[in-house]
Amino acid sequence: MKLPIVLLSTLVPALAWSPTDSYAPGNVSCPAYVHQSDTGLVRAADSLSDDESTWIDKRHEITDKNLISWLEHANITDFKPADFINNANRSINIAVAFSGGGYRAMLNGAGQLSALDNRTEGAYEHGLGGLIESTTYLAGLSGGNWLVGTLAWNNWTSVQSIVDGNGIWDLRHSIISPGGFNVFKDLGYWDDIDDDLDAKEDAGYDLSLTDVWGRTLSHQFFPNYTDAGAALTFSTLRDASVFKSHQMPFPVVVADGRTPGSYVISGNSTIFEFNPFEMGSWDPSLYSFTDVKYLGTPTKNGVPTDDCVGGFENTGFIMGTSSTLFNQFILQLNTSSLSGALYDIVEHFLKDLSDDDNDIASYTPNPFYGTKWAGVESIVKNETLYLVDGGEDDQNIPLYPLLQSQRDVDVIIAFDNSADTDQYWPNGTSLVYSYERQFSTQGNGTAFPYVPDMETFLALNLTAKPAFFGCNGSNLTSLLDEVGAETVPPLVVYMANRPFSYQSNTSTFKLSYTDEERNSIIQNGFEVASRLNMTLDDEWRACLGCAIVQREFERQGKSIGEQCTKCFSEYCWDGSYDDDSVIGVNYTTDGLTNGDQSTEGSSGTAKSGASFVNPGWALVTTVLAVVMAVTL
Ligand SMILES: *[C@@H]1O[C@H](CO)[C@@H](O)[C@H](O)[C@H]1NC(C)=O
Ligand SMILES: *[C@@H]1O[C@H](CO)[C@@H](O)[C@H](O)[C@H]1NC(C)=O
Ligand SMILES: *[C@@H]1O[C@H](CO)[C@@H](O)[C@H](O)[C@H]1NC(C)=O
Ligand SMILES: *[C@@H]1O[C@H](CO)[C@@H](O)[C@H](O)[C@H]1NC(C)=O
Ligand SMILES: *[C@@H]1O[C@H](CO)[C@@H](O)[C@H](O)[C@H]1NC(C)=O
Ligand SMILES: *[C@@H]1O[C@H](CO)[C@@H](O)[C@H](O)[C@H]1NC(C)=O
Ligand SMILES: *[C@@H]1O[C@H](CO)[C@@H](O)[C@H](O)[C@H]1NC(C)=O
Ligand SMILES: *[C@@H]1O[C@H](CO)[C@@H](O)[C@H](O)[C@H]1NC(C)=O
Ligand SMILES: *[C@@H]1O[C@H](CO)[C@@H](O)[C@H](O)[C@H]1NC(C)=O
Ligand SMILES: *[C@@H]1O[C@H](CO)[C@@H](O)[C@H](O)[C@H]1NC(C)=O
Ligand SMILES: *[C@@H]1O[C@H](CO)[C@@H](O)[C@H](O)[C@H]1NC(C)=O
Ligand SMILES: CC(=O)N[C@H]1CO[C@H](CO)[C@@H](O)[C@@H]1O
């Protein structure tokens, strides 16, 4: 079933799309700049790209103005927003990050984002409306990247219009079986996907399960594009007017590198980012970026060895790359009950893949082949680059790209919708791993503020209400020395999923949601970010404002006033630990009350972080088997 509606193609120059106008990559002429450097499409990760710098400068013209009006609305008493922003050393950079966790993370994240978005009904009155309009960077990982990608590549549509029924995120039927009981509709769906895969394979490219997964995701995220965005590329955003006019934040999508047969270890994972201009990693194991638009081009040391290639960087494929954990869905289908295209697809991959490698996305040819800055040779010596789900290194919130000192981020608002506890609530695991990483060689001088262990997160209610980390830059001096960092890291505002009006802790592997469930989770997310619509703290906006301006206050050597001091004593983690009480995690829907609490002996070692293991594939597979049995 081909959708006849061509949404953006009339507005977007044809070049930005796949040159074949299909899922298959095709040859294009190389950009002029490849001849001006001996490393062609690739550069060292020692600065921002010129494109990003230029774009961000323009974005600041908008965010500066919006932040003044947001702070004014926040009723901050300690300073005058206009004077403060206009006299600042530089523009304030706010980054917002959304964790992984499947549709649960996407939907809770949507509600949280909607509380920051002035386009949401009520967000200005009883939320944080106007804040996303003041934000510079917007990062997503796995389920969080579905949110970021859906909005960004649909002309920066709003969560409000999705809730109002603009046709995006019809999640009523499993993504595997979107026609519900309508078998004929499903057959057409899988035929389409099969055609897309054939087109890419026939053009000479390696297929991985991520291609299948990315195509299925696109049917939910890009229903208005021809053939559900088969020709929609990531770099298309550069030509979208909403991006060109800097009306949206700069999107960043995160994935991890993984060599087949190996596991991703948090401390030495290579964290990749995709942004509208580039793809690559700041980590010393790679320390390079390539032009995202020409992925698929055969190169040596970044220099094309043949024609350049366009169309490889399909938006759904990249969104699938950040979320390869879910590739498993496809393989859990029971082949004996399948027919036609779907049978062919599953058979194809069952034959070709070993169990350990179901989760990879193949980036062949490797854009970093033969490049010279990488500290780990195996990445640049192989003609294939393998990427996996951004959460596989347990850092389920995409923080690392936002910690890079070149980006000058002042504050990260980190939304955690992970399923860490038995009851699928967050417990701070992601922050603990990001904290630990700075001490490994991959940390490379990027600092991260002190955080406690997970027991403390739960016992001190740091997942029950917003918690600020690194409030006081001067407390971090010895940490900076220890990790060799030259700049103070951003202040981290952490907000975890918690039930207010709805039990929003659905399983990561729940594949279908009624519109009512979807909208209820979105509403709950709004309430998480807004402190239950400002009812729990009518100064919440001002307190968040204090966190946003704190680094600039420190740069100016000014001390904060009475209101911010009060806010910080309310929201900053005070450095204390409580790892003796193990708290039951069945939260009631007033958000603040914990369920049964029982005090048990200390379960120990969490401070070191290092003792935690990767969430095992065995568990994932078991959960999947159950889910599939129910959904199909
Ligand atoms: C800000 O303070 C004024 C005066 O105290 C009050 O009328 C107004 O409702 C407050 N606005 C917000 C958004 O809290
Ligand atoms: C909070 O605000 C949102 C957005 O305006 C609204 O949908 C929701 O019903 C409000 N929640 C409560 C408990 O009033
Ligand atoms: C948000 O909406 C309010 C009310 O309509 C308006 O006064 C304010 O300027 C808007 N802020 C931004 C950043 O658009
Ligand atoms: C994109 O969004 C803007 C602002 O909402 C709107 O003016 C424009 O018409 C939209 N473009 C398309 C192609 O839908
Ligand atoms: C998608 O198409 C439908 C039907 O034409 C339209 O109602 C809807 O507004 C479109 N959605 C977006 C995000 O453009
Ligand atoms: C990462 O660490 C693990 C365990 O120490 C090791 O097996 C693996 O080879 C390391 N990978 C890289 C790329 O250094
Ligand atoms: C490249 O990766 C493949 C797949 O794991 C492996 O078999 C091969 O040995 C690697 N080649 C090199 C040169 O490392
Ligand atoms: C926190 O979550 C991790 C998984 O992310 C889990 O292994 C650990 O047991 C949890 N700890 C607590 C105290 O909930
Ligand atoms: C940071 O410093 C302040 C004042 O200098 C102190 O009160 C606070 O406890 C310190 N916080 C941490 C986490 O060490
Ligand atoms: C939480 O709920 C689950 C499922 O209803 C139950 O098995 C578990 O015992 C409860 N835990 C606590 C601490 O109440
Ligand atoms: C955490 O919240 C629970 C339930 O509201 C409360 O009983 C407890 O005293 C709080 N703990 C701290 C350290 O604030
Ligand atoms: C601050 C710091 O240690 N930066 C290093 C990051 O990694 C690259 C590549 O290995 C080095 O060149 C930098 O000096």
TrEMBL record:
Alphabetical list of CDD domains matching this protein: cPLA2_Fungal_PLB (cd07203)
Reactions the enzyme catalyzes: a 1-acyl-sn-glycero-3-phosphocholine + H2O = sn-glycerol 3-phosphocholine + a fatty acid + H(+)
Any single Gene Ontology cellular-component annotation: endoplasmic reticulum
Pfam families the UniProt entry points to: PLA2_B
Secretion signal span: 1-16
A GO molecular-function descriptor: phospholipase A2 activity
Residue span, PLA2c domain: 29-578
InterPro entries in the record: Acyl_Trfase/lysoPLipase, LysoPLipase_cat_dom
Keyword terms, alphabetized: Glycoprotein, Hydrolase, Lipid degradation, Lipid metabolism, Signal
GO biological process, one term: glycerophospholipid catabolic process
Broadest EC class assigned to this enzyme: hydrolase
Entry superkingdom: Eukaryota
EC number annotated for this UniProt entry: 3.1.1.5
Family named by the database record: Belongs to the lysophospholipase family.
Function: Catalyzes the release of fatty acids from lysophospholipids. Phospholipase B may well contribute to pathogenicity by abetting the fungus in damaging and traversing host cell membranes, processes which likely increase the rapidity of disseminated infection.
Database matches in PANTHER family: CYTOSOLIC PHOSPHOLIPASE A2, LYSOPHOSPHOLIPASE 1-RELATED
Protein name: Lysophospholipase
